[in-house]
Amino acid sequence: GAVVSQHPSRVICKSGTSVKIECRSLDFQATTMFWYRQFPKQSLMLMATSNEGSKATYEQGVEKDKFLINHASLTLSTLTVTSAHPEDSSFYICSAVPGLAYEQYFGPGTRLTVT
Amino acid sequence: AQTVTQSQPEMSVQEAETVTLSCTYDTSENNYYLFWYKQPPSRQMILVIRQEAYKQQNATENRFSVNFQKAAKSFSLKISDSQLGDTAMYFCAFMKHWAGNKLVFGAGTILRVKS
Questions:
Q1: What is the per-residue pLDDT across A29-50, written as a single tens digit (0 to 9) for each?
Q2: Measured between CB atoms, which of A41, A43, A108 is closest to B106?
Q3: Quick one: what percent of chain B has pLDDT higher than 90?
Q4: Which of A70, A109, B27, B49 lies at a CB distance of 3.0 to 4.6 Å from A93, suitable for a disulfide?
């Protein structure tokens, strides 16, 4: 149980375009989802907290207009990287928290390459 | 703010041997959770073990055990009978109780198991 999926697993896009990454909780409802960014051999950096039905809470230094997060249902959160640039290339990971639980379950990640 | 420190960027261990990964944290909270996550080359985050701060007994999960020293704010992970599949990056993480399920990660330790 507690499976989280991400789609796509890899995406290459051209500079200036937008790309959407989906995060789904497959067998539970998630009131809270988190989005992380990870550079090679580094730790996970929290970008934002996504709560179903409300606006996402962004961490300091994260541009909310560039990284649009939508949590429209209890099983789906999306991260849209708008007007992507090569410096946005990274590994993006989502996690989800079931109901009243505290533990985060992680998706497999999405590798974004902006050319 | 809470911080998590992993002072060993890289470690190696011979197959079947035992290795201990260090983690210290700084907090003024009394109720919290601590976690060790494993991130193998696939980059899927996998929960290895968790510890509730109110529990004095050290958590164990098969070959994995922790040494939780609350007063010293130390939370080390011991891997016994190391296997090649244990090769991964290991992250220590802290979560404050009733604080939105946010995780604070350490910088990580790369563990290589050698045959």
A1: 998 999 999 999 999 999 999 9
A2: A43
A3: 93
A4: A109
